[in-house]
Design a protein that fits this description.
The complex is a heterotrimer of chains A (95), B (500) and C (478). Chain A is mainly alpha-helical. Chain A has three helices and no strands. In chain A, 32% of the residues are buried. Chain C folds into three domains: 122 residues; 136 residues; 216 residues, no CATH class. Chain C is globular. Classes of the chains: A mainly alpha (95), B mainly alpha (500), C mainly alpha (478).
Chain lengths: 95, 500, 478
């Protein structure tokens, strides 16, 4: 039976798969960074789907905590990646 | 303080500790370095003397240290280890004196003597190894300690020779390791016990034991220079003469031969090895090596290379003795371990003297050298006669026992021709050298006279070692029946191995 | 005694913050932090040795709700190795990084990396592992890029992307586990997990992510450039500790949490990849032109040996033979950690002296630095697996396990790998022998050369001769 939970969960998996494909196939740095972020988004969606405990009950807070932590980590990592990329293009333009 | 447990360890430590200190000495501290070397060597000699006395009276000396569950480092003194340890210790002392003289004013002496000491420590540890695991450890340590000695001069030839040496010995070490691990898995910790423990295994294991034997002997055969694994030996001649002397008489080649003896007698047991058909295989390999080495020696003009091939041939007498079933063959092989060591080191010392004093490296340059350097050439003559097997030099004793043992074991049909051919070939490549040295007139000038003739023909430190060892070779033959002689000791070992 | 668990994590973290706030006495702060953390690690090891596995619940929250730290013999041993290696490398770095500006940026990241390593080794639940993996990855990348040169930045960027990819896969696996079992605590999962599509997919995803991070062939492509362009102390920690932390996680998952699921085929697959790593890594190391590249490829190869243990452990039934093999695995990992760290530190000294690390032009430098060359020789002995190093004992157990289970392929691969290692090590050492006499001064820069010497001596001698307690610890403290 295709409930909403399953729909969200599978969508999350699909997004992860698409992100993975993009990360492996594209060669441009920026595209790869975005692809990894897309993968992250997919995983977060999966986690949110897992948090569903039924129409009446409150959702499970643990996966929500995981998603929040994950977002923080993803943002920091993306920031580092972009900073390094910027440094790299600056060096290449100078040198 | 349980001295019995510490003594084997002290014997090894008596050269490790001076060696480590020597590494840090400045190049110029000639006196301190020599003192440390000689002090360590003398101490070791004293300790070995105690061991000899103790083992003769059935004392047990054993050091144990667990490295991992089921893997124990064991140093023990039994009759066979004492034979090899005393040879190594005595010859190390003599070689140290020689090396001090030979390397005067060459660079990197601290590094040389440091690794020299470590080399002897590895040899002594190998001799005292009480199980196959310990033996393998010291076998590999020996490779590590000798590489810097072969590469010492740092020239491209030296490095190339060292690389070839390393390739052969590490490859052999790997085969030895695999064989040992395999044996360990099927038979548990393989302690060296007279008569061997493997005969107790069920019959299904016999094919595996045969393959393991092949692996072990091949691994050991690299260092023992069994054909076709001998390729490193002539290449390693690039090393300075003291290194060639040590490697060929005492350390590396003997370690391989000693290992073969240990495997056949104390791991498999000679009767069991014969049962599995392994002695025949070993005997054939030994016979081929004996003849091949002698033939190749015939065609070498470079003196050290000629001696190298002679070593290839002569060390296989030990393997041959091992392959002959029966106490007399065993005695022949074991006693040759000592005799060949003393004789060969004399030959190498003399060769080194010719090179250092007169710049003579080739046999063709040796005309009349007996007149210029009579003592050295006399030592060379004694040793060469021993190699051929002429009484009363020690070599005769070993060949006699080998021949007799072959007759007893019913193997005379093919062993005797090998022995006779080899002796004839030995004569063929030694006698012309002796003839040239004594009976030909020298040329107008020596290739490069480094050391002028004073009252003595060459430097003291270079002269006395070959004289001493030649005297020992003669004495070992003349006094073979005296107590504590190599022959008597070999008889003791054979007694205990065969349970007589 | 259980407090040692939290101190091991908090001390380097506090140190990182202090060095950020007090840049001037930073070196002193780092040394104090280093010593304190090493003491904590040591007492942890002692505690595990005497009492067995230890548990610490942060804030008093019980498992399932809060974050717990758990130490058993394996993590305690790796924690102690981490502490000693980082301490030695810190002493080294205080001299190696001569410019103050370099050091102010270096120390906080360095101590954060240490925090992440310790936290990873002590984590008791899966999500905490994810967080520590990310922290470790980010600080490692930042440290690797510190040199600033384009090659370094590019390699660091690739390292970052690969790391992120791996972490995402790992997180996907964690999600599946939570979906299937409702808990992330590793101890309770070990009890309740059953073979099934959910668990298998989760394990596959997590393993894939970890294999990327541990640079197992053929996913090793990012490692050589990253480790070869980083500053010497960073390369040391990356090769010796960071990749090993990822391997530790593979071990935890395969042998502990998901032990039920592991099939012979899966273990064999990892073994085959490990074999590829040994052969390909050793071959590339042999052909490397630069010392640092040689060392980096050597890391790829040595990690391969660790993976060769997996099919052997899988095939051995629980009992003394399996314990022997497990101990062999641990001592091999420990020896490699010390040896590789010491090797990179020694190479750093050479590079500083000579201005380059091209192997063919090493002659003069190698002969003028006897202590450093000796350190490289000792590291070489440990990497080849010659006695008396701990690696010899480890390889013996690998060979024995291979023979005992009839899996001869691993024996052949180990033999060939060791001989190749001998070839590339002695290729370097050959340059230490020359025909000109150099003045005989053993140690030139004490604070740089002694750490390298001590680390490699530990690998080549101490672990080999005094390694028996490792087996005892693993038996008792697991």
């Amino acid at each position: 039976m295709l409930t909403a939970q399953w729909l969200y969960g599978l969508t999350g998996c699909l997004i992860v798969a698409l992100g993975l494909r993009a990360a492996l196939l594209h060669t441009s740095l920026l595209q790869r960074v975005v692809a990894v972020n897309v993968m992250g988004a997919g995983v977060f969606l999966m986690l949110i789907a897992v948090a569903y405990r039924g129409p009446e009950a409150l959702p499970d807070p643990v996966p929500h905590a995981l998603v929040l932590t994950g977002i923080v980590v993803a943002v920091s990592a993306t920031a580092l990646a972009l900073a390094l990329a910027r440094r790299l293009t600056a060096e290449q333009n100078d040198g | 303080m349980n001295w019995d447990a510490w003594l084997p360890l002290l014997v090894v430590a008596s050269s490790v500790l001076p060696g480590l200190v020597i590494f840090f000495l400045r190049e110029g501290s000639h006196g301190l370095r020599t003192t440390l070397n000689l002090a360590g060597a003398s101490l070791k000699l004293v300790l070995v003397g105690i061991l000899i006395w103790g083992v003769f009276h059935e004392h047990v000396y054993e050091t144990r240290w667990t490295l991992a569950p089921g893997l124990e480092l064991v140093l023990q003194a039994d009759t066979l280890s004492v034979l090899f340890v005393s040879l190594s210790t005595l010859l190390w002392l003599v070689t140290t004196v020689y090396a001090v003289g030979y390397l005067e004013n060459s660079p990197h002496r601290s590094r040389f003597f440091g690794f020299f000491s470590l080399c002897v420590s590895a040899t002594v540890g190998l001799a005292l190894a009480g199980n196959l695991f310990t033996f393998v450890i010291f076998y590999e340590l020996l490779t590590l300690a000798t590489y810097p000695l072969v590469a010492h001069r740092g020239t491209p030839e030296a490095l190339r020779g060292a690389r070839i040496y390393l390739g052969y010995t590490l490859g052999g070490g790997m085969l030895l390791l695999i064989g040992s691990v395999w044996l360990h898995v099927i038979a548990g910790p393989t302690a060296f016990v007279e008569g061997g423990l493997l005969s107790r295994l069920p019959v299904d294991y016999h094919p595996q034991l045969q393959v393991i034997f092949l692996l072990l002997i091949t691994g050991l055969g690299v260092k023992a220079a069994l054909v076709p694994l001998h390729g490193w030996l002539p290449q390693a001649m690039v090393a300075p003469a003291p290194v060639s002397a040590l490697l060929h008489a005492v350390a590396v080649v003997k370690a391989g031969a000693f290992g073969i003896v240990r495997v056949v007698y104390d791991v498999y047991g000679v009767q069991f090895a014969d049962q599995l058909g392994l002695l025949t295989a070993l005997g054939i390999a030994a016979a081929v090596t004996i003849v091949y080495g002698s033939v190749k020696a015939l065609f070498q003009d470079n003196l050290k290379k000629r001696l190298a091939y002679s070593t290839v041939s002569q060390v296989s007498y030990i393997a041959l003795g091992t392959a002959i079933l029966g106490p007399i063959g065993t005695i022949g092989g074991l006693v040759h371990l000592v005799h060949q060591g003393v004789m060969k080191i004399t030959l190498f010392f003399s060769a080194g003297n010719y090179a250092e004093t007169l710049g003579v490296h080739r046999v063709s340059e040796m005309n009349g050298v007996g007149r210029r350097m009579p003592a050295t050439t006399l030592a060379f003559t004694v040793a060469a006669l021993g190699m051929i097997g002429i009484p009363p030099v020690a070599g005769f004793v070993s060949k006699w026992y080998l021949g007799l043992g072959a007759v007893e074991a019913g193997m005379a049909a093919w062993v005797m021709p090998v022995l006779l051919t080899s002796s004839a070939l030995n004569a063929a490549y030694f006698l012309p050298v002796l003839y040239r040295a004594w009976f030909r007139s020298p040329g107008p000038a020596w290739p490069a006279e480094h050391i002028a003739a004073t009252r003595f023909e060459t430097a003291g430190a270079l002269l006395w070692p070959p004289v001493v060892t030649a005297t020992l070779a003669l004495a070992a033959g003349l006094f073979a029946a005296a107590p504590y002689s190599p022959l008597e000791w070999a008889k003791l070992i054979a007694q205990r191995e065969y349970g007589l | 005694m259980a407090d040692a668990l939290i101190w091991s994590v908090v001390t380097p973290l506090a140190g990182a913050l202090l060095t950020l706030l007090l840049p001037r006495p930073a070196t002193a702060v780092v040394m104090a932090t280093g010593l304190a953390t090493t003491v904590a690690a040591g007492s942890l090891l002692y505690g595990v040795g005497t009492q067995g596995a230890m548990l610490y619940e942060i804030g008093g929250w019980t498992a399932g709700l809060g974050i717990a730290l758990r130490a058993d013999a394996l993590s305690a041993l790796l924690l102690t190795m981490t502490a000693l290696v980082v301490l030695a490398a810190s002493v080294y770095s205080s001299v190696y990084l001569s410019k103050t500006s370099e050091r102010t940026r270096f120390w906080p990241l360095w101590l954060l990396l240490w925090t992440a390593l310790n936290a990873l080794l002590l984590s008791a639940d899966l999500f905490n592992l994810y967080v520590t993996l990310e922290l470790m990855g980010l600080s490692a990348v930042a440290l690797a890029a510190l040199a600033g040169k384009p090659a370094a930045v590019q390699a660091a960027l690739r390292y970052l992307l690969v790391g992120l990819l791996g972490s995402m896969l790992f997180l996907a696996g964690v999600t599946l586990i939570y979906a299937g079992y409702g808990t992330l605590d590793m101890a309770s999962l070990a009890r309740t997990v059953e073979a099934g599509p959910v668990a298998w997919t989760a394990l596959a995803l997590m393993t894939a992510g970890l294999l990327l991070k541990t640079a197992l062939f053929p996913l090793h492509f990012w490692l050589p450039p990253a480790h070869a362009s980083a500053p010497a102390p960073v390369s040391a920690v990356l090769s010796a500790l960071v990749v090993k932390a990822a391997f530790y996680l593979v071990l935890r998952l395969w042998l502990d949490v998901f032990a039920e699921l592991v099939t012979t085929t899966a273990a064999d697959l990892l073994g085959v990849l490990g074999a590829g790593a040994v052969l390909w890594g050793s071959w590339c190391a042999l052909r490397a032109e630069r010392l640092k590249l040689l060392a980096a490829y050597s890391t790829v190869a040595q990690l391969g040996y660790l993976f060769l243990f997996l099919p052997v452990l899988q095939a051995l039934p629980p009992g003394p033979a399996r314990d022997l093999a497990m101990g062999g695995l641990v001592i091999l990992a420990l020896t490699h950690g010390f040896a590789k760290a010491g090797l990179f530190l020694a190479i750093g000294v050479v590079q500083q002296r000579a201005g380059h690390d091209t192997i063919r032009e090493l002659d003069g430098t190698a002969q003028r630095l006897p202590a450093t060359t000796f350190a490289i020789a000792l590291a070489g002995v440990a990497l080849i697996g010659l006695p008396p190093s701990g690696a010899f004992l480890g390889k013996w157990q690998l060979l024995a396990g291979s023979v005992a289970t009839g899996q001869w392929l691993w024996l052949v691969v180990t033999a060939i790998g060791s001989l190749l290692a001998a070839a590339y090590i002695f290729r370097v050492l050959g340059h230490a022998f020359g025909h000109r006499a150099y003045p005989n001064r053993p140690v030139t820069i004490a604070r740089e050369e002694w750490p390298a010497l001590l680390l490699t001596a530990t690998a080549a001698v101490v672990l080999g001769l005094a390694g028996a307690p490792v087996w005892k610890l693993l038996e008792g403290g697991a």
